[in-house]
Design brief:
By secondary structure, this protein is α+β, with helices and mostly antiparallel strands. It contains three helices and five strands, in the order E-E-E-H-H-E-H-E. It starts with a strand and ends with a strand.
Length: 103
């Protein structure tokens, strides 16, 4: 807010600030040589609400390209999903890696 004095009268001018949407982050699974493909499909279904067919497609992309995007989320949701996938994977003794990256 800017205050100007015009001949003993106070004039208030509001500055307009641009509101920007919060940044989004990709949640990505990385390929490894140890995590079974069916486990990756299960993770995609549980944590990213994918159908069997969608999960199979993403799993094959991870297997062939080395990475697969699971979804795009706001920061706090992306962080939570990464943590959940890593904890679930470690609990089942798999080294599946899950990371997030800005869009």
């Amino acid at each position: 807010m800017i205050v100007k004095d015009c001949h003993d009268e106070a004039v208030l001018e509001l500055e307009r600030s641009e509101l920007r949407p919060p940044p989004m982050f990709k949640v990505i699974l990385l390929n490894d040589d140890f995590t079974p493909m069916d486990f990756v499909v299960k993770v995609l279904q549980i944590f990213f609400s994918m159908s069997q067919e969608q999960a199979m497609q993403v799993m094959l992309q991870i297997h062939t390209d080395g990475i697969g995007i699971c979804g795009i989320y706001f920061s706090d949701i992306a962080i939570t999903k990464v943590r959940q996938v890593i904890e679930f994977s470690r609990h089942h003794e798999h080294p599946l890696k899950c990371v997030m990256e800005g869009t």
